[in-house]
Amino acid sequence: MTIAFIGLGNMGNPMAANLVKAGHAVNGFDLVPENLNVAKEQGVTIMANALAAVKDADVVITMLPAGKHVLSVYEDIALKAKKGALFIDSSTIDVESARKAHAVARKHGLSSIDAPVSGGTGGAAAGTLTFMAGGSDDAFATAEPILKPMAGRIVHCGGDGAGQAAKICNNMILGISMIGVAEAFVLAEKLGLSHQALFDVASTSSGQCWSLTTYCPVPGPVPTSPANRDYNPGFAAALMLKDLKLSQEAAHGAGAVTPLGAEAAQLYALFNAQGHGGVDFSGIINFLRGNPA
Question: Which of 52, 53, 163, 203 has a 20 to 30 Å separation from 32 between CA atoms?
């Protein structure tokens, strides 16, 4: 099967590489030359532009920064796409833009799903991402075997935009929970409690959560967490802020009250404003300590 992959950044490149490993012919395009060089080394055929990439492709996958980019690319390539092609957007964007992208695909006789991911760059490289899919049952059935080489789990969340809705809700939980875990460690430090002691208690008690047991914001208890690498990102604080902003836009539009989500967005906005957008989002613990970095 021929797959066009548009957006070969930190997530897109390892995802495309896993499709190549699965035996697919992958035609790729990205605006950044360095990303194209990496993709070429991994077996992706580099195309001159997005239109060239989608020509004769059975499946088109996009991994782009924001809704405006997805809609612009869809408008450009839909007319040139192969009849009956499947469009899969794995970007994290707002629900309304996702639904508009589905409408663009539908207008041109193309099937589509929105399929944002969770798992970060590590999951992308390992092929263990969680895909949250939105779209028709038929489109999802066609997409599922394409996603499998990149996935640990694939969940069909509902109709158009449901994948983005699930992603936004999930990451609002993540942002809130990381702040809660970080605050607990800061308090423990002030009370003279060791990091390991708090971890040993909370990780087996009612305070247990992913932000603690998998992504612990202090070095030591979980050796694989970014805290042990000076907070070099698996998931950057700037991306967390982006997702929290999306959650608040969605909450406002839907009339939902999310005070903790709003507070988390404000805290990550301050952290980013201090110049820490490239730091892993678990590095928020240093902001809560009052440390400059």
Answer: 163
